[in-house]
């Protein structure tokens, strides 16, 4: 596997000045009817001097090859002159955003889900990006999709009923993003690509089970709310019985205590307003 070799070619300003001087010399030769010398100078100027001038912009690089052999990479921005016979390939070093398409996959529990990710990446080693893979842009797209699919397969979308999973796609966003970034860096390192950030941008149940899963989530929420209400109601009934017994306001036998507990639980746990019934007789009639 090719390792990146950074080179610093000579400045192009002196070479450009030489180009101007030679061009002026060629014009002078043609003016004095020295056509052979003028033609030679022009050929040397346009075939050996001018093609070697390159401009490297900030966050840009030039990968140089000479007759199929890797020469080096120019990463410094500026105006340079290199061997005019080398092949120069421009590689951007800027950060790129990959907005992945929505993928339909199965999570760890076999539920069909839709998932997509946003990946921020850049080329860190130009030699690997050019020579190790056929097309590094396509390589990033395909490997990113494969990593997202693999991540969705090893984690459930949400906690299963009666099971507390440590990491889920829905609740463990930070941990899932960290694992996705690590896997992408491992997959893309062979192409000289560095992943700066990876995040899940879309996560939902597939349309065919979305309605059923929504009902399950609503039922879970209702059960949790009812559980909290019952726990609070039992505490209030217990407190009421203790206060009545402590202050000696009224003495209730076990049957009347059971009736009172039943009435209070109906009042406190019901989801509708209770209509009171006034007893004008005794507690036993």
UniProtKB/TrEMBL annotation:
Give the species this sequence originates from.
Answer: Pedobacter fastidiosus
Do you know which PANTHER family this protein is assigned to? BAND 7 DOMAIN-CONTAINING PROTEIN, MEMBRANE PROTEIN-RELATED
Chief localization: membrane
According to the entry, every stretch annotated as the Band domain falls at 51-217
**CDD domains reported in the protein's UniProt record:** SPFH_like_u2 (cd03402)
A Pfam family matched in the record: Band_7
Q: Which UniProt keywords apply?
A: Membrane, Transmembrane, Transmembrane helix
Membrane topology term reads: Single-pass membrane protein
Xref: SMART domains: PHB
State the name under which the record lists this protein: SPFH domain-containing protein
Residues annotated as transmembrane: 12-30, 36-55
> Which InterPro entries does this one have?
Band_7, Band_7/SPFH_dom_sf
Q: State the compartments where it is located.
A: Membrane
């Amino acid at each position: 596997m090719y390792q990146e070799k950074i080179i610093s070619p000579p400045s192009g300003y002196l070479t450009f000045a030489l180009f101007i001087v030679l061009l002026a010399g060629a014009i002078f030769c043609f003016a004095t009817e020295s056509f052979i010398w003028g033609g030679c100078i022009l050929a040397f100027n346009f075939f050996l001097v001018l093609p070697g001038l390159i401009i490297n912009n900030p966050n840009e690089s030039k990968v140089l090859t000479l007759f199929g052999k890797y020469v080096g990479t120019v990463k410094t921005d500026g105006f340079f002159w290199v061997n005019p016979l080398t092949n120069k390939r421009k590689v951007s070093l800027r950060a790129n955003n990959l907005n992945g398409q929505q993928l339909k996959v199965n999570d760890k529990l076999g539920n069909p889900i839709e998932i997509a990710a946003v990946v921020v990446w850049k080329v860190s080693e130009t030699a690997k990006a050019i020579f190790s893979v056929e097309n590094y842009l396509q390589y990033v797209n395909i490997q990113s999709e494969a990593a997202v699919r693999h991540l969705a397969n090893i984690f459930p979308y949400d906690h299963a009923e009666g099971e507390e999973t440590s990491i889920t796609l829905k609740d463990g966003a930070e941990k899932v993003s960290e694992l996705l970034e690590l896997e992408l860096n491992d997959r893309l390192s062979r192409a000289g690509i560095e992943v700066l950030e990876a995040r899940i941008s879309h996560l939902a149940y597939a349309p065919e089970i979305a309605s059923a899963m929504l009902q399950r989530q609503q039922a879970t929420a209702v059960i949790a709310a009812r559980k909290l209400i019952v726990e609070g109601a039992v505490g209030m009934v217990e407190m009421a019985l203790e206060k009545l017994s402590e202050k000696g306001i009224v003495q209730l036998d076990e049957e009347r205590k059971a009736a009172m507990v039943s009435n209070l639980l109906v009042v406190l746990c019901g989801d509708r307003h209770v209509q009171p019934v006034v007893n004008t007789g005794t507690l036993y009639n």
